[in-house]
Specification:
Blueprint: H1 8-11, H2 25-101
Length: 102
């Protein structure tokens, strides 16, 4: 299901407005504020939709990577402990050689 986003120019094409009776300054200011708010709402909506999709994609990838990391945790721990034991054995053999060399 492909959605086609409209460009800002397409979304807010300038359309001739019907002749309206003259408005007061207050009504003109309110109309201008309403129009600006509508434009900002559309920009925010477009930005939010894009960010929402990116965030969903990132969360999916992170959850997948997290699941793999959790599956590998026992093997990783076993390997790390084995390497630590080997290092400790090497250290103790060097200490033993140093004591007898002195």
């Amino acid at each position: 299901m492909a959605t086609r986003k409209r460009r800002r120019q397409e979304a807010f094409e300038e359309q001739p407005e019907p002749e309206a009776p003259p408005q007061t300054e207050e009504e003109q200011a309110q109309a201008q504020l309403d129009k600006e708010q509508e434009i900002w709402d559309s920009i925010r909506e477009a930005h939010y939709e894009g960010q929402s999709r990116q965030l969903h994609s990132r969360l999916y990838r992170l959850s997948h990577v997290g699941a793999i990391a959790i599956e590998q945790l026992p093997l990783t721990l076993q390997r790390q402990l084995s390497l630590m034991r080997q290092l400790e054995f090497t250290r103790s053999s060097f200490v033993h050689k140093i004591h007898f060399a002195v």
